[in-house]
User: Which sequence fits this backbone?
């Protein structure tokens, strides 16, 4: 099962010195933060704000190549989460055939925003994300945290 | 204006040694080793070019790997990339894509064009005009500066 997500915002994480793209579903019941590098974050930001740069950015170039070939992005899907790394696929329609291309979610999202293509996340990823978050929370527990509820 | 093409090879990527510079410099040279073309690129593009030069395959596809994969899926071959113009210190490039029937040209920053060309083993050219329009007065002192301070940035 797939859940459609919207890009709701971009945050800076001072601890990892990286940027976080916040994906949320329509009903605001699911939230998926994805850590991305600075250039990908600024590319996503340009697309969100509708800023046209004087020279084409890398994702603008990808979009131009697709347009030139009359290929269309059907959707992008965040497909997997392994050891804190997210995986995505870009689904293309080209000459009546469908192709899916392996991608980092950051590139997929930057491209989807430019092509006005929908962004989906598999239920599996949403599940794994909440599991990993729980694991991280458990790992970060310190012995003193346990004492807090002692009467 | 001489629009004949000169074939260039990428000599390397250096970190700009000037203070507060966030950019990197890609150095291109012609086969006769008579002209050098330095092009300032962003850090991400500099890294993408350096990884291709060193033959490093990243665990996940970087943006230019994705760009190459897209062209492959569309059956497009990168015939060549050409640095076509320089206007107020901004360089312009074109990517020549050969499809089944026709060839199309796509406007690009030179950094993206070079990063793609290195991943597809495509030749890189500049117009004679672009090479001649760089004044030696600006390039030479800069190259001297690079030799003494910038070379450490290769690793």
Assistant:
């Amino acid at each position: 099962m797939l859940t459609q997500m919207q890009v709701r915002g971009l945050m800076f994480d001072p601890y990892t010195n990286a940027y976080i793209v916040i994906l949320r579903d329509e009903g605001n019941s699911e939230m998926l933060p994805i850590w991305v590098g600075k250039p990908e974050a600024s590319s996503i930001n340009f697309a969100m704000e509708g800023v046209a740069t004087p020279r084409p950015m890398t994702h603008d170039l990808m979009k131009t190549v697709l347009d030139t070939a009359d290929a269309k992005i059907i959707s992008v899907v965040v497909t997997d989460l392994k050891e804190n790394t997210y995986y995505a696929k870009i689904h293309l329609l080209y000459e009546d055939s469908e192709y899916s291309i392996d991608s980092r979610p950051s590139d997929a999202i930057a491209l989807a925003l430019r092509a006005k293509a929908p962004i989906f996340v598999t239920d599996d990823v949403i599940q794994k994300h909440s599991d990993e978050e729980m694991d991280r929370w458990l790992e970060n527990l310190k012995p003193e945290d346990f004492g807090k509820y002692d009467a | 204006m001489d629009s004949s093409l000169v074939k260039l090879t990428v000599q390397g990527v250096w970190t700009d040694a000037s203070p507060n510079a966030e950019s990197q410099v890609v150095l291109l040279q012609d086969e006769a080793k008579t002209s050098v073309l330095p092009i300032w690129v962003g850090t991400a593009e500099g890294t993408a070019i350096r990884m291709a030069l060193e033959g490093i395959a990243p665990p996940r596809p970087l943006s230019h790997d994705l760009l190459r994969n897209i062209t492959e899926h569309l059956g497009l071959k990168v015939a060549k990339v050409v640095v076509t113009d320089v206007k107020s210190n901004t360089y312009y490039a074109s990517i020549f894509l050969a499809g089944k029937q026709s060839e199309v040209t796509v406007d690009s920053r030179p950094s993206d064009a070079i990063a793609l060309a290195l991943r597809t083993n495509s030749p890189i050219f500049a117009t004679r005009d672009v090479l001649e329009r760089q004044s030696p007065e600006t390039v030479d002192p800069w190259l001297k500066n690079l030799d003494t301070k910038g070379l450490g940035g290769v690793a």
Observations:
- The longest strand of chain A covers residues 2-13.
- The interface with chain B takes residues 37-40, 54-59, 61-62, 64-66, 68-69, 71, 85, 87, 90, 92, 94, 99, 101-104, 107 of chain A (CB under 8 Å).
- Chain A has one domain: 2-140.
